[in-house]
Design the sequence.
């Protein structure tokens, strides 16, 4: 702001920002947008890679194979075709460490969908995961069905 006086009257004038100030502001805006886009792409890539790793894991594949081998459970889903979805990373029922894996896998057939609950333990002698239990919980209209799949 500038104050000028002519014959006892003060005039207030607002100066416009300089060209360098505007160019710095535009550069900061562009940098903020670029950083936001780059961060979003990084998070999306990380999510995709984590889901890909879970789907390729031994305990995940063993559970899906057991489900596909159980004709009663597959018939209740209306499968084939069986659609296996990504696990929910924030679900507290999914617990995995180097010795133990307990996961909830969303699955869907042509009739209904549900969750495949599975728990596996690593066999220390063979250094492989072994399925301990597998169960399928489906929901049709207002009722829920639980299928215990023998291991």
Sequence:
């Amino acid at each position: 702001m500038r104050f000028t006086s002519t014959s006892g009257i003060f005039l207030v004038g607002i100066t416009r920002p300089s060209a360098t100030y505007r160019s710095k502001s535009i550069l900061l805006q562009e940098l903020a947008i670029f950083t936001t886009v780059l961060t979003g792409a990084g998070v999306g890539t990380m999510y995709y890679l984590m889901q890909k790793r879970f789907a390729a894991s031994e305990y995940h594949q063993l559970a899906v194979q057991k489900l596909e081998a159980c004709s009663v459970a597959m018939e209740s889903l209306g499968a084939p075709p069986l659609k296996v979805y990504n696990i929910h990373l924030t679900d507290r029922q999914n617990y995995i460490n180097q010795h133990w894996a307990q996961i909830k896998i969303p699955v869907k057939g042509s009739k209904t969908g549900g969750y495949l609950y599975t728990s596996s333990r690593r066999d220390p002698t063979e250094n492989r995961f072994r399925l301990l239990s597998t169960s399928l919980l489906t929901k049709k209209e207002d009722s829920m069905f639980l299928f215990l799949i023998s291991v």
Remarks:
- The mean pLDDT is 83.
